[in-house]
Design goal:
Layout lengths: L1 H9 L3 E5 L18 E2 L2 E2 H4 L2 H6 L1 H17 L4 H15 L20 E8 L7 E3 L40 E5 L14 H10 L2 E5 L11 H7 L3 E6 L11 E4 L2 H8 L6
Parallel strand pairs: 1-7, 7-8, 8-9
Antiparallel strand pairs: 2-3, 4-5, 4-6
């Protein structure tokens, strides 16, 4: 911890690669490991275009459940520590700054957002931020079915979430497995490459190093002469390449490591 904080104090360009584990302490399941099941399904298998095409009702029930949990959650100490560190960096003209944007901190959601809704129509693809819960009447109450022990409810979506612009079927605005992340489709490509190339410290928190290209960012920083610090609750594939490895709940270690006192 002491050695990391010494490096942190000397770092000028810091990037943080955050995964689902960052929000675990807020009560949001990571859907890997022991909590990887939703009803009787491997949750990761539902996060694919093929699953949505086969059964949009089932997939929308899953994402309605996730949206409901997220709306009830509150940021934990790790979220606050990262945010406060970013604000401090911006105030001192340091930190995770995209050169094209000027001084400050930049949040790049390369795997989409849970509360974005995207039209499935090829000639529309309208995207909007939608915090409605439920997002359509047919989903109301389906989040409680798992708690009631209903394994496979029959909930046909006669009125599924629809695009507000053209009326076609809408889908969750996230990047699914087998899809190209925003990093690769030019939305964030230039910004992320600039950040990674310039970084002298990469903080990896709450991720298992299994999803690319994000999993490669840490090694790219090291190739450029920077350091890598990993904050995870369990061992992951990238541990042997980390300069600093802190295995403990990130809501405990990250505030201490970043020098943030939580009230």
């Amino acid at each position: 911890m002491s050695a990391f904080r010494d490096v942190l104090s000397r770092s000028k360009r810091i990037i943080a690669v955050a995964g689902a584990g960052l929000s675990a302490a807020s009560g949001i399941p990571t859907f890997r490991g022991a909590r990887g099941m939703w009803r009787k399904y491997d949750a990761i298998s539902l996060a694919t275009p093929a699953a949505f095409k086969e059964n949009p009702s089932r997939v929308w029930q899953f994402y309605h459940y996730r949206r409901t949990e997220a709306l009830q959650a509150q940021p934990n100490a790790a979220h606050h520590a990262l945010a406060m560190r970013a604000l401090d960096a911006a105030a001192h003209n340091l930190g995770s700054t995209a050169p094209t944007d000027g001084p400050g901190s930049v949040l790049l959601e390369m795997h989409g957002r849970l509360f974005d809704v995207v039209c499935t129509a090829y000639n529309c693809r309208h995207r909007e931020l939608n915090f409605s819960n439920p997002i359509c009447p047919a989903l109301a109450g389906t989040e409680d079915l798992m708690e009631a022990g209903v394994v496979e409810p029959d909930v046909p979506l006669s009125d599924p979430p629809m695009c507000s612009k053209c009326g076609a079927l809408a889908q969750p605005g996230v990047v699914w497995f087998t899809e190209v992340p925003h990093y690769m489709d030019q939305i964030y490509l230039d910004k992320i490459e600039e950040l990674v190339d310039a970084a002298d410290l990469c903080i990896v928190v709450g991720t298992s190093y299994t999803v690319h290209p994000a999993a490669s960012f840490a090694s790219m920083v090291q190739v450029g002469g920077g350091k890598v610090a990993v904050f995870n609750i369990d061992h992951s594939d990238g541990d042997d390449r980390a300069d600093f490895l802190l295995l403990s709940p990130c809501e405990e270690t990250l505030p201490k490591a970043l020098g943030i006192t939580m009230s």
